[in-house]
Amino acid sequence: MPLPNWHPESLAARLPFLRRRARLTTATRAFFAARGYTEVETPYAVPAPGEEVHLCPFATVREYPDGRTEPLWLHTSPEFAMKRLLVAGAGPIFQLARVWRNGEASALHAPEFTMLEWYRPGATMDDLIGETVALLRAVLPPLVASRGIRTDLTHVERLTVADAFARHVGADLLGTAGDAAALAMQADARLRDGETWEDLFFRLLLERIEPHLGRDHPTFLTHWPAAQAALARRDPADPRVAERFELFVCGLELANAFVELTDPIEQRARFLTDRASRQALYGTKEPTPGGAIRSQDWPMDEDFLAALAHGMPPAAGIALGFDRLAMIDSGADRIGQVLWLPPSDLG
Q1: What domains does the chain contain, in order, with CATH numbers?
Q2: Whether the predicted model's global pTM rises above the 0.85 cut
Q3: How far is CA 78 from CA 166, 239, 266, in A?
Q4: Is 163 helix (H, G, I), strand (E, B) or coil?
């Protein structure tokens, strides 16, 4: 039977990883301070936790002194709050934020974890990639290893999503956009019942592409199809793709980044699309296998859309899983090794 996480022997096993994590935190703050960033703190309990289709937030309730109550959610990212600060004129900002995603628990996922997010007004995707490389080289050793994968940080690889599909799947991703049968035929894959082009895209990405990424060197997977733009703007040079990248190191997906969408009309349209998809998949309230209620019922974030309408400066931003960065820095194989008091199911 595993020891409880408070047991001296349990902490002693984690302590070498945790001490590396503490030094990593100090080095990270020093990196951003030297570059003129301001560290910020934004609310964790919010009226609208975001519009990610597949993320399930933790629900809570605020009680006012006069007896009124307000449903709130623990945020899944500080992104919307930090963008409000960009509108307000905060300039370059970063945050080491606690975030919550219900239903997640594995060797690489925790229901409560730390996200490093930073935003720089005026930055391009190339600027943000360069700064991310500089961060990795400033806070990590030149050679890092986790889960048996060793990665050399002295060289990085940049690969567009379309090129990755051509190389590892043998398919013309952009040429088949929206046509699941065509993508399946080119990929020599069987199209499953009810599988959409987007479903197949993610299945092929997970099964055939991600196992090749971020192994010998870090990989920046760039220029995602417009359907996966999320909160990124479309590339002015090719509107079929968005100015988005993901970073892989030691085979781990480490970060997700955008040149930010600042158009409130397009942002509202994307929110409506995501809300419709979430409603179709999960409904308003759906019992989960454990008997809990998966609540998806929150209002549109009109305050965020109002901030965009007021005027957000052009900017680029990135969300980096700090616990995974600590795994890479310390050589840990499980996320529970770099958490001071991990849930029992994380080991």
Answers
A1: 8-156+217-346 (3.30.930.10)
A2: yes
A3: 35, 27, 21
A4: helix
